[in-house]
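User:
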Amino acid sequence: MISQPEPANGKSPYIDLAKEIGAEVKFQKFIQMEGLTSKEFREQRIAILNYQAVVLTNRVSVDNYFRLAEALRCEVPVEMRYFCSSEAVANYLQKYIVYRKRKIFYSKNGQLSGLLSEMQRYKEGNKFLVPMAEVHSDELPDMLGKAGFDYSVAIMYRTVSSDLSSINIDEQDLIAFFSPLGIESLFDNFPDYEQGETIIAVFGKGAETAAQKAGLRIDIMAPNPKAPSMKMAMEQFLGI
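Assistant: Predicted structure:
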């Protein structure tokens, strides 16, 4: 079981690996995003229309920015500038607005440094709103602060555990986790879970630490010196 959404195009290295070894692979979201209510958002005392630009790091932030603007009856002005972490996020804005290149900017290198570069020209006289999750990395806010931007982080959504009641967790021969929240979701849904012979695979230090704290035995760890990806780490474990 891969604790991620099933790929929309039906292509995945895990599907390829399962075919190679004659196994069945199942994708299951262990976590999902939940938007804050308008009441919860108001408690932050942030007025969306007080900002001349918005910084969007993913599609979830786009959806929740416009959702809350509508719920709060804030008509986003056509003059609003949008700074996006990637071209894909910029293109996603077309779901809500008419795409105008002079108002939409995105990181050309796909990195936060590239995003900051796009924002520099509009630094003076503009306030930037940064929609984020309740639990988030401080990397972007720290960069904006050090660069002297006038900005505010707006918490617009949170990560919650998915409902896993439809699956039989004890039937899984292998479960792959990619974040600490995935581990948390496992025990939220199955408080008495016992690993037994189930193979547990984790990706990243955060997931590794969470698994250890939960008392899980880690059988597959990625990345590692010989396997930079989860698929390669699984092949290494299987001796392929």
